[in-house]
Specification:
It is a single chain. The radius of gyration is 19 Å and the shape is globular. Strands 3, 4, 5, 6, 7, 8, 9, 10, 11, 12, 13, 14, 15 and 16 form a 14-stranded antiparallel β-sheet that branches. It has a two-stranded antiparallel sheet with strand order 1-2. By secondary structure, the chain is of the alpha+beta class. It starts with a helix and ends in a 7-residue tail after the last strand. The chain is built from two helices and 16 strands.
């Protein structure tokens, strides 16, 4: 791009009024008012909205990974173990006549292979019969944190062993509330479907690939609401921090922008199309490590 850095930063903040996924690099709570809205949003709130998406994605991925390992071990009658969860996670299983209750304890802090650090507990519950074609996995968080963010809530995940494409699939109806160390709060609810298109059963977390569709609503500390709908499946590769391709529509106060995540490259770049049809390259960040 040949625009000045100052022009690009101003453009990004303006776009942020309807964008839920941009995390601005500034820390000065800069605000800009969108032309057709009385509401404003800070750079910090944009950062919070982006990170909330990653939290929801990762929690769901953990649940599906643990369930998949159980399913493969049971149906193949051979011991199977995924390497996605490190040894610092303690998994306890209680089996009743009809159900399995699984507790994932991340202790005071446990770093996953992708660099995210979790603490507290994820509880999973599902029907014991692993031969069923589909079932619901109940997920509840207890004293849980994600990279220092306190998260409450849970999800019901409808797990299908083989969808119309022959792939495992989970549809999560989730509701979470989060509080950041700096005092920012947010809620994020909605339904997302994750089709597991690559890496299922390999035992290696780095080759897992999902296609994500669905809708979600994000509400920030100021009460501003963002409605987000996937219009072209989002491709999530667990080896990458970012969505690598797909298109997401983001609507706030009847204004809609479209975010194209790119050509499959693992980078922080995206192309945002504004309501007037103009486009801008933007940069996305998720819990950027120093």
């Amino acid at each position: 791009m040949k625009k000045s850095l100052k022009q690009v930063n101003l453009k990004v903040v303006l776009i942020g009024l309807v964008l839920m996924v941009i995390s601005c690099s500034k820390e000065d709570a800069e605000t800009v008012e969108f032309e057709s809205s009385e509401a404003v949003i800070t750079a910090t709130e944009l950062k919070v909205s982006d990170e909330s998406e990653l939290i929801s994605e990762e929690v769901t991925a953990i649940a599906e990974d643990v369930y998949a390992a159980d399913e493969i071990s049971t149906t193949s009658k051979a011991d199977f173990r995924s390497d996605y969860l490190p040894d610092c996670v303690t998994i306890t299983t209680v089996v009743t006549d009809t159900t399995k209750e699984r507790t994932l304890d991340f202790g005071e802090g446990c770093e996953l292979p992708n660099g995210n650090t979790l603490s507290g507990i994820i509880k999973l519950s599902y029907v014991k019969d692993m031969t069923l074609a589909q079932k619901t996995i109940a997920l509840v968080l207890e004293n849980f944190t994600f990279n220092g963010v306190s998260v409450e809530g849970g999800a019901d995940i409808l797990r299908v062993r083989s969808n119309e494409n022959g792939n495992p699939q989970g549809t999560a109806n989730a509701s979470f509330n989060a509080t950041w160390p700096e005092g920012e709060t947010a809620s994020f609810t909605g339904t997302r479907t994750r089709e597991w298109i690559e890496g299922y059963g390999s035992g290696f977390w780095g080759d897992n690939v999902f296609l994500i569709t669905g809708k979600r609503t994000f509400v920030n500390k100021a009460g501003n609401t963002f409605d987000k709908e996937v219009v072209s499946p989002l491709r999530r590769e667990l080896s990458c921090r970012f969505i690598v391709s797909g298109v997401l529509d983001i609507t706030r106060n009847e204004n809609t922008v479209s975010l194209d995540f790119g050509d499959g490259s693992c980078d922080a770049k995206g192309i945002l199309t504004l309501p007037d049809g103009s486009s801008e390259e933007v940069f996305l960040r998720r819990f950027l490590k120093n």
